[in-house]
Design brief:
Strand content: 25-35%
Strand order of the largest sheet: 1-5-4-3-2
Structural class: alpha+beta
CATH topology: YaeB-like fold
CATH class: Alpha Beta
Low-confidence stretches: none
Order of helices and strands: EHHHEEHEEH
Number of strands: 5
Shape: globular
Mean pLDDT: 90
Helix content: 40-55%
Number of domains: 1
Distance between the termini: 32 Å
Largest sheet: 5 strands, mixed
Radius of gyration: 14 Å
CATH superfamily: RelE-like
Length: about 130
């Protein structure tokens, strides 16, 4: 049985790439976001299916990366290039959506290094994300 998590979307995530997804995909994005929130409520299942990957952790907080597809598109999660970075707090059973982006939205040669820098610079308390 999976742990039930409370899912929230951080303001930074809403103001940046989510806004771009919504403008481009309209209703398909709304369906996608609803689906992501439902999936994240049972985040442990995503680990079991290898959809989520733990990147770094400190105590009870885990920074994880998932891949997703836009509703109604033909691309798989992996081939879509769409990513979501979340902070999972096992103690409080919370998931905070920190960043939602397409891999081409993140500049640089190393995608992971780039999004970790964004997290460190825009979120207090996640300086362990190195």
């Amino acid at each position: 049985m999976s742990t039930k998590y409370f899912v929230s979307i951080e303001k930074f995530a809403e103001r940046h790439f989510i806004k771009k997804f919504h403008k481009k995909y309209k209703r398909a994005w709304e369906i996608t976001m609803e689906t992501l929130v439902r999936e994240f409520q049972s985040f442990d299942v995503l680990f079991m299916k290898s959809i989520a990957e733990e990147i770094v952790s400190l105590n009870d907080i885990f920074i994880c990366k998932t891949e997703f597809r836009i509703a109604g598109t033909k691309f798989s999660r992996k081939k879509s290039g769409n990513r979501c970075i979340v902070a999972l707090n096992k103690k409080t059973r919370e998931i905070k959506i920190l960043l939602v982006y397409h891999k081409n939205d993140i500049g640089g040669n190393n995608e992971t290094v780039a999004w970790k820098k964004i997290i460190r610079e825009n979120y207090e308390g996640y300086d362990f994300c190195k």
